[in-house]
Amino acid sequence: MNIEKLSKRLETVCTYIPSGSRIADIGSDHAYLPCYAVKNGIASFAIAGEVVEGPYQSALQQVKNSGLGDAVSVRKGDGLEVIQKGEVDCITIAGMGGALISSILNKGMEKLSENERLVLQPNIAANFIREWCIEQGWQIIAEEIIEEDQKIYEILVLEKLKDKKPYFLTEAELLMGPILIKENNSVFQAKWHQELQQWKRILKSLEQAAETAETTEKKKQLQKNITMVEEVIS
């Protein structure tokens, strides 16, 4: 992967960046995504944010080598610390867990002008992001699920609710994604069949374990999830 050719998951993230946007890529690593977005005319300006020294230096070098220093700003800082309020139109966060992405958004709430689009690609636990939407008054306007190198990724696209109507998701939608459930494509089916198999293995081992309040509650939750997912994918 380089600024000429991104991975499938990062290319998919880029398809949801509005044309001509000023973007901030948080946890940018080598700054491949912001450099690619600017180089290909997707973004007019980009910030590559990185909190770890090694990746920060890699991003600086990448931007320098690409000759994109006028349009890509590499900044060191934790999460949304690297942006000013209203400075960007679109924020991308890719390759982290859903819980961490939600934490970054919560910590940086004062940096959101509420006019931004958020394009988020959690590696696991996308449900944390959907729960964050409900809590903070954002809505999911698009979702996509893809497979790359035998791994499955979800991309969620969020915008701030413009009216005061409550945004509600069912338990199944929080877990599996409201738009992904409707599409119910082959990658979605594969993901949840894999999850079902894993949950059933765990449930079987718990049924052979000593009965405690903790195991009883865990079995109850697993069975609930199994029933819910089977209803969706059947």
TrEMBL record:
One of its GO terms (biological process) is methylation. Residues 189-223 form a coiled coil. InterPro entries: SAM-dependent_MTases_sf, TrmK. It comes from the Bacteria. Keywords: Coiled coil, Methyltransferase, Transferase. The keyword Glycoprotein does not apply. One of its GO terms (molecular function) is tRNA (adenine(22)-N1)-methyltransferase activity. PANTHER family: TRNA (ADENINE(22)-N(1))-METHYLTRANSFERASE. This is tRNA (Adenine(22)-N(1))-methyltransferase TrmK. It comes from Heyndrickxia camelliae.
